[in-house]
Amino acid sequence: MDFQNFFNSITPELFFSIVKKHNIELTKDDKYLLEHILFFYPSKRTGGKLILSIGAPSSPLISNVVLFFFDQALYETCKKQGIIYTRYADDITFSTNIKNQLFKFPLVVKHLLVKHFSGQITINEGKTVFSSMAHNRHVTGVTITNEGELSIGRERKRYISSLIHQFSLNQLSDEDRHYLQGLFAFACDIEPIFKQRMIKKYSLETINKIITALR
């Protein structure tokens, strides 16, 4: 499942209300500084409400503070029903070995969101997906094989291979080369054997250039 406009749903007021539940007292000056460092106005012309900055290194930490009690409640609910709950930013995943256990669970999630956030944080209905071993299972961009192994998937492997080919012909811009370096590092972290396959296909020299040339 996926939260709707997750970071943009988090306002200073919501953050400060959760901080208070953590028994942390903030002064007026504290709140002023935090508002102007961590949040921004979507439109400089029209103003509007302050929202959490997307892409700021501080935003994941702030969102984890805001969701702490929600995560706690959802984890306890899942534990009682034999379900494993995992969250990465706005992506939430539930897994279980109990057949048909998850079909009614989106209602549980929505109930807890209303209870903790009064509708301020909601679910993106279009991104709710049910999956099983009969289909490809994807969690935060990573494929889980039927053998329980992690994979980046065939399509992504082909895409990375095509980028490496372009790199070997010196056809990539500096921006695309940086992108390839990051994507290749991610792929090798998920599937270490992928690096050896690319070395065999394109040579150790080419792969080393991708890894080290842009440092």
Task: Explain the overall architecture.
This protein is mainly alpha-helical and 215 residues long. 52% of the residues lie in helices and 10% in strands. The chain contains ten helices and seven strands. The strands form three sheets. Strands 5-6-7 form a three-stranded antiparallel sheet, with no helix packed on it. Strands 1-2 form a two-stranded antiparallel ribbon. A two-stranded antiparallel ribbon has the order 3-4. A hairpin with a 2-residue loop joins strand 5 (137-139) and strand 6 (142-144). The chain is flat and about 60 Å long. It starts with 5 loop residues before the first helix and ends with a helix. 13% of the residues are buried.
Low-confidence stretches: none
Q: What pattern of helices and strands is seen along the backbone?
A: HHHEEHHEEHEEEHHHH
The end-to-end distance, rounded to whole angstroms, is 37 Å
Strand order of the largest sheet: 5-6-7
Radius of gyration: 22 Å
